[in-house]
TrEMBL record:
It holds the Pfam family PP2C. Residues 61-282 form the PPM-type phosphatase domain. One of its GO terms (molecular function) is protein serine/threonine phosphatase activity. SMART domains: PP2Cc. Signal peptide: none annotated. It comes from Pseudonocardia halophobica. This is PPM-type phosphatase domain-containing protein. Residues 1-63 are annotated as: Disordered. It comes from the Bacteria.
């Protein structure tokens, strides 16, 4: 991705959304933490069910997975810390394919989940900003962070194009709104007036961890009730649509396997990017009404 507000020349990238075919479930023998997807392990034979099974039901038990894909370096990071109302989780995506980008993502995710239980997801993201700015070897990143509130409930905050989705028995809700040039143009109806929104603009982020401020960080309160929270980098959601993400999460039966299936499926369906996911059934303290 490119931290800029000026559209770049179009480049090829995988199509948004995939067909109904998705990789078959992983088995315990191939559920390790490798760095890529071996197409020989699975075959895309399953189809989306007409009546999906319920969302995951082990509150507070999170699972994460991250793969390098076809990039030179792994510059995504995931982090989970705490439990119950003190649970916090983050997915960060370094801007660029460099060690400095990877450091920024790792630092941002770790600082955010350490701070969020005390100061909330928005201020935790701003704390991550300060840490990234002070680290001489760090470049920049985008990130989504979710955290519980002391009195019950939860919030999610983000910059850039990492996403948070809530999978429930009723369907799937996208909780975040991409901070990209392409989305900025769509929000202003440019896709309806004949303006061409070229694929490269999906990758040009308008907010980052390093440039975050109270007025530019996206922030939302999480819906009440049970569900499974899914945080993903753009290496996942650029190739897997919301229906496919929900299907994989429901089918997996466990958060760690769900996260791994998401990144495997992203690579199998054409993602060239780092791909990362964190999955957690909402703790009881988060689901209060």
């Amino acid at each position: 991705m490119t931290p800029a507000t000026v559209p770049a020349l179009p480049t090829d990238r995988p199509p948004r959304g995939v067909s109904a075919g998705v990789p078959a479930p992983r088995t315990p023998s191939d559920a390790g933490s490798g760095t890529g997807f071996d197409p020989g392990l699975d075959s895309p034979t399953d189809t989306l069910p007409l009546r999906p099974p319920p969302a995951l039901r082990t509150p507070g038990a999170a699972g994460s997975a991250s793969v390098r894909g076809l990039r030179r370096l792994a510059a995504d990071a995931t982090a989970v810390r705490g439990a119950g109302s003190g649970l916090a989780l983050a997915v960060a995506d370094g801007v660029g394919d460099s060690a400095a980008a990877a450091l920024a993502a790792r630092l941002a995710a770790d600082v955010a989940v350490a701070a969020a239980p005390r100061i909330g997801s928005m201020h935790a993201l701003l704390a991550a900003r300060d840490a990234v700015r002070l680290e001489p070897g760090a470049d920049d990143a985008v990130m989504v962070v979710a955290a519980g509130l002391a009195g019950g409930g939860w919030t999610v905050s983000w910059v850039g194009d990492c996403r948070a989705l809530l999978v429930t028995d009723r369907g799937t809700e996208l909780l975040t709104h991409d901070h990209t040039v392409a989305q900025w143009l769509r929000d202003r109806g440019k896709d309806q007036d004949g303006t061409e929104i070229v694929p490269a603009w999906e990758n040009i982020v308008m907010t980052t961890v390093g440039s975050a401020g109270p007025d530019t960080v996206g922030h939302a309160r999480g819906p009440a009730g049970p569900g499974t929270l899914v945080l993903v980098s753009d290496g996942v959601h650029r190739t897997l649509d919301e229906e496919t993400i929900a299907f994989l999460v429901r089918r997996a039966g466990a958060p760690a396997r769900a996260a791994r299936d998401l990144v495997d499926a992203a690579l199998a369906t054409g993602s060239h990017d780092n791909a990362s996911a964190t999955v957690v059934p909402l703790p009881d303290q988060w689901a209060v009404r």
